[in-house]
Amino acid sequence: MERYNKLNASQWEKIISFERTPRWTISFYRYHQIKNPQLFRDYLFVPLEHLQVLGRIYVALEGINAQVSVPTIHYQAFLDFIQDISFLKKVRMNFAMNHDNKSFLKLTIKVKNRIVADGLENNPIDVSKKGEYLNAERFNQMLEDSDSLCVDIRNHYESEIGHFQSAIRPDVDTFRDSLPMIEKELSPYKSDKKILMYCTGGIRCEKASAYLIRKGFKHVYQLQGGIINYLREVQKKQLPNKFLGKNFVFDHRLNEMGSQQIISKCHQCGQPCDQHTNCANQACHLLFIQCPDCKAKYDHCCCEKCQTIIHLPEWEQKQLRKNQPSGHQIFKKGRYKEIVRN
Prior knowledge:
Elements: H1 9-19, E1 23-31, H2 37-50, E2 54-60, E3 63-71, H3 75-83, E4 94-95, E5 107-111, E6 132-134, H4 136-143, E7 148-152, H5 156-159, E8 162-164, E9 168-169, H6 175-186, E10 194-198, H7 203-214, E11 220-223, H8 226-237, E12 243-245, E13 247-248, E14 255-256, E15 276-278, E16 287-289, H9 292-297, H10 304-309, H11 314-321, E17 340-341
Parallel strand pairs: 2-5, 6-11, 7-10, 10-11
Antiparallel strand pairs: 1-3, 1-4, 2-3, 8-12, 9-17, 13-14, 15-16
């Protein structure tokens, strides 16, 4: 049986637009020893494709990390299938604050070395020895504790548009870069401070908290379910929302509702803005923050050079893309040189 995506993103976009079936954007993860990740990957693909699940799923020896878009009419069947897998029984499903039918436009299930790349290939982290979970109410209380230090375990471009007040925010592009930097910054507080960690959905905090405990930190805590679950909890229980700005997400939406504050600026004109975009020049594809006025002025591009390129004939654009480095390029203007507190 075929275990690959038979439709491309454009085809799925047309199907979704035509059907108008509501979809939920959901994430879940579980650290668990998987003996044969490739076999498990193949086991997942056909049932999920049958249920029209779209999204990005990583499978590795250490577990599974999934961000998916599920038609509401198939959600129960999807949940039954996932929770019928022994190690995923009662797994937490993190529902997005703002659903978008086009958050994902294809199903990708990949076998990876790690479900979260940590750069510790020869010295893996034991995530069973992790920080204590905090719900939204306890997290809020401990944020007010003078003996607590709050640490953002995400990348700089995520925390730029939204973070908890007074959080330490590492100036890093990747999770693997953050671990040694956080350890160094917090080393004077190994015994006397309470370390509160948070990330988008919780998966990075599992590793980061276990890493600090391995390094001798005595009081390590993590926000259960991450920012996504926190925002749902404060809304449901009518708690004070101490998250400022928007929550960055890794799908078509790029962010979702956090609070009403706009704490970041357009990278081109400096006006208040919290909307990330990718440069329309496919040879660039830079991730950056752009306001509506600059989007119109630069035709969705990051600079005048890219704006000129997108108006060239397609064959000429393809020629320019040849031998160009590919990857996730991120706007770095105005980044701090050290870990900062704000």
